[in-house]
Automatic annotation (TrEMBL):
Name of this chain's protein: UDP-3-O-acylglucosamine N-acyltransferase
Role noted for this protein: Catalyzes the N-acylation of UDP-3-O-acylglucosamine using 3-hydroxyacyl-ACP as the acyl donor. Is involved in the biosynthesis of lipid A, a phosphorylated glycolipid that anchors the lipopolysaccharide to the outer membrane of the cell.
Highest taxon, organism lineage: Bacteria
Record field: catalytic activity: a UDP-3-O-[(3R)-3-hydroxyacyl]-alpha-D-glucosamine + a (3R)-hydroxyacyl-[ACP] = a UDP-2-N,3-O-bis[(3R)-3-hydroxyacyl]-alpha-D-glucosamine + holo-[ACP] + H(+)
Originating organism: Rhizobium grahamii
Length: 353
């Protein structure tokens, strides 16, 4: 069967131009005119591809690599074969990410559902009081409520719902099937397919006749350049706001409760759950499937290991893991002790010496 390519290679950029864009140094200026079309892993890179290495462990793979160029640090230049051009970067991983974005700009945000979907579809439902700036694209079956405001260059995907009074900034991408309610969204925000923003928070008060619903009258504030993954949910605040800080990246299937406040440039991986009124400082990183208790504070720069259960405050700059979460060295030491004892335990029926 013929392979379908969803993202076509770039027409080509000279290595010298790519190096300038990345802020990297071309190790051998005679390679300046080599043309790069695509990115690829070391294991299957071919002519026209650029790849990257961040460890000497890649030495064996590089020996058979056919890439046109490799991005690496100065300390790893020696393991790159002489037939491959080298771009020297202080942060090869970040430089490679930039190269991918340069060569495949359309892959940086959700693709349009239709090949010809510029402008406003006559099959979209837009309230007459909504305000759309120029160059806004609205795909079929999207719904935009009363008094909503959509900034220039933003795309609203097929079947997306923008609630009454919602304000969305410029150059945003709101993908198909998502809903944005009771929210103020900044510029350059990406919300992927099926995300749910601004629905009720989970709040009930036990009463004589059962659980009494607590009204949720707050908002969701999403600052500039945030990215929110597919099927992630962010509840609106109870009386205050739920806030997602500038530049934060949230993976797919994350649950963020009401009144949570997340700082700038955080990274939250898939299936994390953050209970209501928890505060995360700037630059916090949370591994997949971790759970954070409500009403706690996670200091700036904290790293939380995957599958951890965080039940109390964590000071800034710490690394925690485990259930309950504790300093990562303590957690790893306990795991090593348990494994050592388990390995040394006698099997059932085995005689003592």
């Amino acid at each position: 069967m013929e392979q379908t390519c969803f993202f076509l290679p770039h027409d080509g950029v000279k290595l010298s131009e790519l190096a300038q864009y990345l802020g990297a140094e071309l190790a051998d200026p005679t390679n300046a005119n080599i043309v790069i079309h695509s990115v690829a892993p070391v294991s299957r890179a071919k002519e026209g591809d650029v790849c990257y290495v961040i460890s000497k462990k890649s030495k064996d793979e590089l020996s058979s690599c056919r890439a046109s160029a490799v991005i690496c640090s100065a300390g790893l230049q020696s393991i790159v074969p002489s037939h491959i051009a080298v771009l020297v970067s202080k942060n090869a991983h970040a430089a490679f990410a930039m190269a991918g974005g340069f060569l495949y700009p359309t892959a940086l945000q959700p693709l349009p559902t239709l090949s010809q979907s510029a402008g406003i579809s006559d099959r979209a439902a837009i309230d007459p009081t909504a305000k759309l700036e120029k160059n806004v694209a609205v795909e079929p079956f999207a719904v935009i409520g009363a008094d909503a405001e959509i900034g220039e260059g933003t795309r609203i995907g097929a079947g997306a719902v923008i609630g009454p009074g919602v304000k969305i900034g410029r150059s945003c991408s709101i993908a198909a099937g998502s809903s944005v309610l009771c929210a103020l969204v900044g510029n350059g925000v990406i919300i992927h397919n099926g995300a749910r923003i601004g629905q009720d928070g989970f709040g009930y008060a036990p009463g004589q006749r059962g659980m009494i619903k607590i009204v949720q009258i707050g908002r969701v504030i999403i600052q500039d350049h945030v990215e929110i993954g597919a099927n992630t949910t962010i509840d609106r605040g109870t009386m205050d706001d739920t806030v997602i800080g500038e530049g934060t990246k949230i993976d797919n299937q994350v649950q963020i409760g009401h009144n949570v406040r997340i700082g700038r440039h955080c990274a939250i991986v898939s299936q994390v759950g953050i209970a209501g009124s928890t505060v995360l400082g700037d630059g916090v990183q949370v591994g997949g499937q971790a759970g954070l208790n409500g009403h706690i504070t996670i200091g700036a720069g904290v790293q939380i290991a995957a599958k951890s259960g965080v039940v109390a405050d964590i000071p800034a700059g710490e690394r925690y893991g485990g259930l309950p979460a504790r300093p990562i060295n303590d957690f790893l030491r306990e795991v090593a002790t348990v494994m050592t004892r388990a390995a040394g335990a006698k099997k059932p029926g085995e005689k003592n010496d």
